[in-house]
Amino acid sequence: MTIQIKKFGNVLVSRPAGKEAWLAYQPVLNEYPGDEKIIIDFADVAVLTPSWADEFLTPLYKRYPGIVKLQNTKNPSVKASLSILKLI
Amino acid sequence: MENKLISISKAANLLGVSIDTLRRWDKAGQLGSIRGGLRGHRFYNLSDIEQFTKDELNLARKWAESSQGVEPESDIYCQTRDIFQARLEVLQKKLERELPLVISSLITAITGEIGNNSFDHNLGNWPDITGIYFSYSLKNKIIILADRGQGILTTLKRVKPDLVDAKEALKMAFTENISGRSSEARGNGLKFVREIIINNPFKIYFQTSDAYLSLTQNNKEVIVKQASSFIRGCFAKIDY
């Protein structure tokens, strides 16, 4: 399963927006059996902050330990945010 | 001093305000234009725009320092987080046109963190004016953010009651994973700002209460100093 982060917007900065993204995605996750990798794709994301990422990625990592993979993380703000959250 | 004339739309773009605001400022004598062409269009001296930005910095400081809270002009006032998000996206688009992505994405990210921090820590508790002051100049490559919130010391004292002053609180906010929103695992925001500044050709001045710090590229030390003025909330100036 691949989650395209750009579908939540391309300037992803606030905690409430990250939390809302996480909550809005629950119906999809609830139907996911968790039997394969979850790929988080950051393609076309212009700006990411640790605040947004913490609200979406931290609970995702907790719920699916060991199967979350990150993709297209070259954007400098994506890289810096993932790094401060110790996800890369 | 540069005496190049620029159009009203270019001036508006550089100052990050609307054309209507510039017309209003012109009528009010705040920022005069030069009329030219057959239709009497407004033009601006680039040097005037530069000077105005310096004044703008003073205006922002005065707004943050004043004992009486007043709502700023609508173009620079983000009463809610949604307005800030919308204006931040406009800034990102403008930066993308002028700068490589490596710069624009990081500038917008740290601006977003600082602005949202103000909302995160003052929601429901604004002492007078709700929201933040947010202005920028593409010409002078500066971004100004200010709030009239409770300030970092008051916020952090809730989780660290033994904090003695704003200097200690400011240092802690930029160097430790700590948040005034207890019971929530958070507090990366200003540390992230610091990481970005020391690894890139940017600068930041940040003041809360009577304490301030300046961070620059390659300078890992966080030295907090005594400010000569008092700002109850927070005031930040980013140079890029």
Describe it for me?
Chain A has 4 helices and 5 strands. Chain A is of the alpha/beta class and 88 residues long. Chain B is globular and about 70 Å long. By secondary structure, chain B is α+β, with helices and mostly antiparallel strands. Chain B has helices at residues 8-15, 19-27, 46-65, 81-98, 101-122, 151-157, 166-175, 189-198, and strands at residues 5-7, 34-36, 41-45, 77-78, 132-137, 142-147, 203-216, 224-239. In chain B, α4 packs antiparallel against α5 and α6 crosses α7. The A-B interface holds A 11, 13-17, 46-51, 54, 58, 75-78, 80-81, 84-85 and B 81, 85, 88-89, 92, 96, 101-102, 104-106, 108-109, 112-113, 116, 119-120, 185-186, 188-189, 191-192, 195-196.
Outline of the structure:
Chain A is α/β, with parallel strands linked by helices and 88 residues long. Chain A has helices at residues 15-24, 26-30, 50-63, 76-84, and strands at residues 2-4, 11-12, 38-41, 47-48, 68-71. In chain A, 43% of the residues lie in helices and 17% in strands.
